[in-house]
Design goal:
α4 runs antiparallel to α11, α9 crosses α11 and α12 crosses α13. The chain has a domain of about 220 residues. A two-stranded antiparallel ribbon has the order 1-2. With about 325 residues, the protein is mainly α. β1 and β2 form a beta hairpin. The protein contains 14 helices and two strands; from the N terminus they run αααααααββααααααα.
Length: about 325
């Protein structure tokens, strides 16, 4: 019973986590690309990293928090334009190659020691450099608050204030996408996903609409990246290729081309990871699997689960198979 209580407490803690909300926001941006528009973006983590660097570097140089947010979002727009302008007239495979290469360039530049005065190099930018600009906005006192089994500071670190902001931003982004997909623009986007030539025959500027989708999804991804680093630090290696694949896992689990699929997929993904770690730690002897091997086992299970999901339920939990399924 103690183990079950601890497991449920860990589940609730992860659901409330700012990391879960930030991941869900980034997945929504990816959903706008892949799920709704059919753009195969393998570099969403690059948008997250650009958002994080834009915020952290701006604050470190003396700019305020909101200026840092603006710089991060503008940088994401420029990054999307650089990616999209030369490639969106080509078929999706070319965009996939370009996006994964561009995201790797951002990561490698961030790791470059010759730029460490800006990016911190491999060590990254520690959270204490820029988190103060965010916590200064908190209306709460800097003290602990316990709600049920969850005891967090109101303002500093991974606080209730940060969690509230992350989930409020997530709710706004979900509402924005819901409204967009009900608009004529949203119907055009979904039409482009199904048949670009048909949309061109109707007089739609397919290139422009795809570019708009790439920019908007990238900006949402950058917003998720900024919220993600507010509880930790900005490190290029923590937002690399693996992160993009995890974003796709969350998207395909919840259901691409759905409004709430990215949120559900992100929550379930982290619950599965936490559950696996707790169960294996409790019931598997250390002689069979030590603490360093448990996370690796979790990635193996997630990878197998993703393959089974693509094979047997490609539309995800909330997706409509008639509208979209992975690989069609």
């Amino acid at each position: 019973m103690d183990f079950l209580t601890s497991l449920l407490t860990d589940f609730g803690q992860q659901i409330l986590s700012s990391v879960t909300a930030a991941f869900a926001i980034a997945v929504i941006g990816l959903n706008l690309h892949f799920g709704y528009t059919g753009l195969v973006n393998i570099g969403q983590a690059g948008f997250m990293l650009i958002g994080g660097y834009g915020l952290a570097i701006t604050v470190e140089l003396g700019g305020g928090f909101f200026l840092g947010v603006a710089v991060g979002l503008v940088a994401a727009v420029l990054f999307a334009l650089i990616l999209g302008l030369p490639t969106l007239k080509l078929r999706g495979d070319y965009l996939a190659i370009v996006t994964i290469a561009a995201a790797e360039i951002i990561r490698i530049v961030g790791d470059n020691q010759s730029l460490s005065q800006w990016t911190g190099g491999a060590a990254g930018i520690p959270g204490r450099v820029y988190q103060g600009a965010f916590t200064a906005l908190s209306p709460f006192p800097d003290q602990q608050l316990q709600i049920g089994p969850y005891n967090y500071p109101l303002t500093s670190g991974d606080s209730w204030f940060l969690r509230i902001v992350c989930w409020v931003v997530l709710a706004i982004v979900v509402l924005l996408v819901w409204l967009l997909m009900r608009s004529p623009w949203g119907r055009t986007v979904k039409g482009i996903r199904e048949d670009e030539d048909a949309m061109r025959s109707l007089g739609k500027n397919v290139y422009l609409v795809k570019l708009q989708s790439l920019v908007l999804g990238g900006v949402i991804g950058a917003a998720g990246g900024m919220l993600y680093v507010l509880s930790s630090s900005v490190q290029a290696d923590s937002l690399g290729r693996t992160t993009t694949f995890l974003l796709y896992t969350c998207l395909l689990l919840g259901g691409a081309a759905t409004v709430f699929g990215p949120v559900l997929g992100s929550v379930l993904y982290f619950i599965v990871i936490i559950g696996l770690n707790d169960v294996v730690s409790q019931f598997v002897p250390k002689q069979i699997m030590n603490e360093q091997q448990i996370p690796q086992f979790g990635w193996i299970v997630v990878g197998i689960g993703l393959m089974l999901l693509v094979i047997f339920r490609p539309q995800g939990i909330l997706g409509n198979k008639k509208e979209l399924s992975f690989g069609d």
